[in-house]
Amino acid sequence: MRNTQGLTFTPLHPVIAAECKGVDISEPISSQVADVIHDAMDRYGVLVFRQGKPMTTEQQLRFTRSLGELEGLYTKIESEEGRRLETPLLSDISNLTPSNKLLPPDDRKRQFQMGNRLWHSDSSYKKIPAKYSALCAHVIPPAGGETEFADMRAAWDMLDDVTKNNIKGLVAEHSRIFSKGTLGFEFTEKERHDFAPVRQPLVRTHPRTGRHSLFLSSHAGRIVGWQLPEALMLLRELTEHATQREFVYRHTWRLGDLVMWDNRVTMHRAQQYDDLKYPRDMRRSTVTCGAPALAYTESLPDLATAA
């Protein structure tokens, strides 16, 4: 357990995630507390704040803004009734309509959100991807619906040197067309335009810690300069490696939990639950990286000569 400025951080897994106590994030936090949280995110990748009750929209957005600039608006798949939440600055990660009824089996939003059960990094399909995601639990089902997080730093560290040398300069193309398309989701012409692939480095360098990590996601579906079969095989092999149990923390939600993770060093996925019987209401706010990920990718050291 670490204690810094009255905040304590208790590890929840050998390589990733910690529970943070000693701060009420529903109230404004100081810049000093924000700095401590940034440092803890650099170390743990995932922080759990057990609030006991859900944060209001104002509280969640205020807390998120205290840690960086919010992600801009972008095209989303809504239910047939339209948007449920009062602001588009929160992502509605729920199986509910605007009238708080369960989404029917054939609703496009429900089908689209099934992709959340694939390993992914939030907004890797954008030229400027996400930094932090903060997800707050408003309603949880009686069983299932956990969220798993995989540490992409530890996954990189455990690769052999030959693989590291082979992949360190590769660039992948990311798109929601790739991820949701594997589930048979059909896109409109406008959505195909809006979700056009963007390029991301396959290996990232953290701008504060200098640590290297894999940048994987179900949104990744191509590698620039590679034939498609070879690219998909490499992406699959790396994902299988990176999501071994030794790298993964599974979070069992309690009402009011806010879990925040660094998309630059983690992947995550939701677990199955009976979404046609039970509601699950989660609301996500997101901090942008502020610049393309390629700008954060430095030349990696020559592994043969590195100390």
Structure description:
The protein has 8 helices and 16 strands. With 307 residues, it is of the alpha+beta class. The longest helix has 15 residues, at 228-242. The two termini are 31 Å apart.
List keywords for this structure.
disordered C terminus, 22% helix, single chain, alpha+beta, 307 residues, 16 strands, eight-stranded mixed β-sheet, Double-stranded beta-helix, 25% strand, three-stranded antiparallel β-sheet
List the helices and strands and how they pair.
Layout: E1 2-4, E2 7-11, E3 18-21, H1 31-44, E4 46-50, H2 57-65, E5 91-94, H3 108-113, E6 130-139, E7 147-151, H4 152-157, H5 161-167, E8 171-174, H6 176-181, H7 189-194, E9 198-201, E10 203-205, E11 212-214, E12 220-223, H8 228-242, E13 248-251, E14 257-262, E15 266-270, E16 281-288
Parallel strand pairs: 3-4
Antiparallel strand pairs: 1-2, 2-3, 4-14, 5-16, 6-14, 6-16, 7-13, 7-15, 8-9, 8-12, 10-11
